[in-house]
Write a structure and sequence with these properties.
There is one protein chain. The chain is of the alpha+beta class. Helices cover 28% and strands 24% of the residues. Strand 7 and strand 8 form a beta hairpin. Helix 8 packs antiparallel against helix 10 and helix 14 runs antiparallel to helix 15.
């Protein structure tokens, strides 16, 4: 008996928690409504789509769907996996697909993702595990559209107000993790889904620490309070010592995102194309990249990312030309006695953007432009500045899919509440090209049209396209089974392992 008691008391239990940081409170942990980066990131652990990209981001594979086939160029058939349960134990079926589709089209919600489904003619459940999607016409993103997270019909069918539903902070999904606790401005705790259809994740819990200040996140990472965290170029090049690299591996890759300064084109002061061109010529993008990023970024030349089929390599970033900028401003009625003035609004979520705003302010001053700055906490920035379009300019970034959809960002239709055309861009030629492009399924023809759009948008100067940063992720060496790939390190996170000893008391 004493031996047994001794063994019990000295037994070492192995549990594991992956410690991460998020810069802001998630607004809604609902894939249909998650438009900010914090909400989208966390919801990604909780929900699944019908399909997803493989680890190389080159091929679409099944997720909730076991297989998918084209019946013709406008009809998709999805066969669903039969071993999937919602976090509350209910069975996942085709009814959930229909419910999610109908919810996206409902006037009761405002979601920019609804635009992806505008060409769907009908969604039918042929049986509990077969779904037929018919499009009005061929659509180049028909399959990628169904990467959208699916909602549970049995929980939400009677919910009259999804925008303000308790579900948004107490979600039920099918994903590898489920929400255990949400403490605003403190901690979001996820626990492993014991019945996940691809196998239980090997790490028991994921703890998101809500840390708005980037320096605090950095210091917490250095002290191994975080297991995975982003690091900035200045930190990598100047602030990290050898002992850090003995504890952490650093994975670096060009990001699928860019940062821009967007003009509010609804305002009279920015409607003159000469003004926008002058501001573009007044800045030095190379200097911006050099000061902020050392060698860990590249200049952004337009709305679609390098290595995508939409990128136009013939379009180059403008070279700074202060004299020409001043000439254009003078033609528009501005000079030293009557300077052009505007405000740059941004968030402190990224440590780089407030500094980028200061550099832009300094560069524009050389052309006689007076710039004021407003730096805000992320949620306040979204709710008080971005969503109500209450800005002169915004310094923001977009994360893009490997298959871009110009409709979401550049079509006049999306200059609306909840839409991603935040700046009010309106070019009838671009609208027409976007509409024509969306039924083109010939990859080469589509690529040529995208490249032409790229050039036209850049010439319009609705944004000052600034930089594409590299993504640098530090991972504690206690985390095993990391497999870097073109899509990053997260593609196989349910196979990651971390052993932590906890003595039984």
């Amino acid at each position: 008996m004493r031996i047994v008691l001794f063994l019990l008391l000295s037994l070492t239990l192995y549990a594991s928690t992956l410690h991460l940081a998020t810069s802001a409170n998630p607004s809604r942990l609902n894939p249909l409504l998650a438009t900010d980066s914090s909400s989208s990131e966390i919801a990604g652990f909780l929900f699944n789509g019908l399909v997803k990209y493989d680890k190389d981001s080159s091929t679409i594979i099944g997720d909730l769907a076991s297989e998918f086939t084209y019946e013709n160029n406008a009809t998709l058939i999805f066969k669903l996996k039969k071993n999937i349960l919602w976090h509350d134990g209910a069975k996942f079926t085709a009814k959930d697909i229909l419910f999610t589709y109908k919810t996206l089209l409902s006037p009761k919600i405002s979601s920019p993702y609804s635009a992806d489904f505008r060409f769907v003619k009908s969604v039918e459940a042929l049986d509990d595990y077969t779904v037929k999607v018919t499009y009005k016409k061929p659509y180049f993103k028909a399959l990628e559209t169904w990467m959208m997270g699916i909602l549970p019909e049995h929980i939400l069918k009677s919910d009259e107000n999804l925008m303000n539903s308790t579900f948004n902070t107490n979600p039920i999904g099918t994903g590898p993790y489920q929400l255990e606790r949400l403490e605003h401005s403190k901690n979001i705790l996820l626990r492993a889904n014991e019945h996940y259809f691809e196998g239980r994740p090997k790490i028991d819990k994921i703890s998101f620490h809500v840390i708005a200040d980037s320096m605090t996140r950095f210091l917490m990472l250095k002290s191994q309070g975080l297991d995975v965290g982003s690091i900035e170029p200045m930190q990598l090049e100047r602030q990290l010592k050898r002992d850090f690299f003995q504890k952490f591996d650093v994975h670096e890759e060009i990001s699928h995102s860019y940062t821009y300064l967007g003009f509010n084109l609804r305002l009279e002061k920015f409607k003159n194309p000469k003004i926008r061109k002058a501001l573009s010529l007044a800045i030095d993008r190379q200097e911006l990249v050099k000061i902020l990023f050392f060698k860990h970024a590249e200049v952004c030349t337009g709305p679609f990312l390098p290595k995508s089929k939409a990128f136009n390599p013939d379009v180059k970033a403008p070279t700074q030309n202060i004299a020409e900028a001043k000439r254009l401003l003078k033609e528009a009625g501005y000079d030293a006695n009557n300077p052009f003035t505007f405000e740059i609004a941004t968030s402190n979520t990224s440590s780089m953007r407030p500094y980028a705003a200061q550099i832009l302010q300094h560069q524009l001053k050389k052309a006689g432009v007076v710039v004021t700055l407003r730096v805000m906490e992320w949620q306040a920035f979204l709710n008080m500045v971005v969503f109500p379009n209450a800005f002169d300019t915004v310094l923001l970034g977009w994360g893009l899919s490997v298959t871009p959809d110009p409709y979401m960002f550049w079509h006049t239709d999306n200059d609306k509440q909840g839409g991603f055309n935040l700046i009010g861009y309106n070019n009838p030629k671009i609208d027409k090209m976007i509409e024509e492009s969306q039924s083109i399924i010939d990859a080469d023809k589509l690529s040529l049209m995208w490249k032409e759009m790229f050039q036209i948008i850049v010439e319009d100067n609705p944004y000052l396209f600034l930089y594409i940063p590299t993504s640098m992720t530090a991972v504690d060496k206690k985390i095993k089974n990391i497999q870097p790939s073109p899509s990053g390190i997260w593609h196989n996170y349910i196979r990651w392992e971390k052993l932590e000893k906890t003595e039984m008391q």
